[in-house]
């Protein structure tokens, strides 16, 4: 099934970027109709390159830990390796939760509202979509810029020194790896290994970014649905001698049904992403500290720029994740405010009871959690920044004299 044929263009276009990125990392939420031999070979080649790249990088890290001859070099290369592990875990979790992801998309797509909206609802809806699009474009630009600089800096730097400045220089790969042969034996072998590393690491990058884009699209649609739902509740205006109590009951029953569906989808969304969010929060402090330390000890302005850009990209990812969760929680809790603002006192007891139930049910926050334990919000972002700064200050104070 191709989702662009099943659902409205307005709905599915917010998922196209994430689908495209995840397909490049061999994660297919919806099966492709065209199963050509070339695509099958491409999938296996991509998987093989990713696995071999990860194994070669892991082998180098293990050998450096055993050898202990150059701990500083190991520390400088660890943040990228930890990010690779994080991307690998995300890939596995996305693959495991493919069915759950597909169910959420199916449910949201079938209930996505295009027609029958008021002017206020339409305005709020497209404001949210435009803000989401701007935020995602900014994250994509920063992420691609960061990985592009990391991948191209070694070869550009080496070629500049060798052919323009006419300086003696060694061949350098973008990532340290251990091979059963010498990758610097000749230019052909060097270029081949370089392309292999670029191709291998991009699979992890696509998985890393695809998870964020997918999470963002889910949050956007749930936030939009909660926003429209709040306006629906405000449109129910019972008046004495006006709407009958039976009509009010029918309206509120429809509202409660949609509200329950959204709460269920929020719970399913958290089931899919709580492990991914835990992985991100678990490693983000370590990665930021290591990148910041690398920038501190580096004497090359380009390396300082790369490390600072990497820190900015990771912080941006963390901020977006916390912001999505915060906005989703605010809109879900805001349903209670809309229910209280409704003219519930002009209807009978049954209407009062249903309104009270809506208010009580809305008190339970719908947001991302860390392994179903800790809610994620902008306070989480500030706490991570605080702890990261504390650890970084400690590292700098201990190692300041040595480096």
From TrEMBL:
GO cellular component: plasma membrane
GO process annotations (BP): signal transduction
Transmembrane segments: 43-66, 78-96, 138-160, 187-207, 272-295, 301-320
Topology in the lipid bilayer: Multi-pass membrane protein
Descriptive protein name: Odorant receptor
InterPro entries: 7tm6_olfct_rcpt
Subcellular location, record wording: Cell membrane
Record-linked PANTHER family: ODORANT RECEPTOR, ODORANT RECEPTOR 19A-RELATED
Short name of one Pfam family: 7tm_6
Species whose genome carries this gene: Heortia vitessoides
MF term (GO), any: odorant binding
UniProt keyword annotations, A-Z: Cell membrane, Membrane, Olfaction, Receptor, Sensory transduction, Transducer, Transmembrane, Transmembrane helix
Protein family (similarity comment): Belongs to the insect chemoreceptor superfamily. Heteromeric odorant receptor channel (TC 1.A.69) family.
């Amino acid at each position: 099934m191709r989702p662009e044929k099943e659902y409205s263009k307005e709905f599915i276009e917010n998922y196209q970027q994430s689908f495209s990125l995840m397909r490049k990392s061999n994660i297919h939420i919806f099966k492709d109709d065209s199963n050509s031999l070339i695509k099958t070979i491409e999938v296996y080649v991509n998987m093989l390159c990713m696995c071999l790249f990860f194994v070669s990088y892991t082998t180098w890290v293990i050998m450096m830990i055993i050898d202990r001859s150059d701990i500083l070099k190991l520390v400088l290369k660890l943040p990228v390796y930890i990010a690779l592990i994080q991307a690998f875990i995300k890939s596995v979790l996305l693959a495991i939760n493919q069915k759950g992801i597909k169910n959420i998309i199916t449910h949201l797509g079938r209930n996505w509202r295009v027609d029958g909206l008021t002017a206020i609802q339409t305005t709020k809806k497209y404001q949210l979509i435009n803000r989401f699009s701007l935020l995602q474009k900014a994250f994509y630009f920063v992420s691609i810029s960061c990985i592009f600089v990391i991948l191209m800096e070694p070869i550009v730097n080496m070629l500049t020194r060798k052919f323009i400045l006419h300086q003696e220089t060694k061949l350098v790969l973008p990532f340290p790896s251990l091979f059963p042969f010498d990758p610097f034996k000749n230019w052909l072998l060097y270029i081949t290994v370089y392309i292999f590393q670029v191709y291998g690491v991009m699979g992890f990058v696509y998985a890393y970014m695809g998870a964020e884009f997918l999470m963002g699209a889910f949050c956007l649609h749930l936030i939009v649905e909660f926003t429209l739902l709040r306006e629906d509740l405000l449109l129910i205006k019972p008046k004495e001698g006006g709407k009958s109590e039976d009509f009010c009951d029918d309206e509120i029953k429809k509202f409660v049904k949609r509200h329950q569906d959204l709460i269920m989808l929020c719970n399913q969304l958290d089931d899919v992403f709580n492990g991914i969010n835990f992985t991100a929060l678990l490693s983000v402090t370590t990665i930021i500290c290591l990148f910041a330390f690398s920038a501190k000890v580096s004497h090359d302005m380009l390396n300082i720029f790369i490390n600072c850009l990497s820190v900015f990209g990771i912080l941006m990812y963390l901020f977006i994740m916390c912001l999505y969760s915060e906005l989703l929680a605010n809109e879900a809790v805001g349903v209670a405010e809309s229910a209280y603002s409704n003219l519930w006192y002009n209807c009978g007891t049954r209407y009062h009871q249903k309104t009270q139930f809506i208010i009580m049910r809305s008190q339970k926050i719908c947001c991302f959690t860390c392994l179903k334990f800790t809610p994620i919000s902008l306070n989480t972002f500030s706490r991570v920044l605080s702890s990261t700064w504390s650890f970084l200050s400690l590292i700098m104070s201990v190692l300041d004299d040595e480096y």
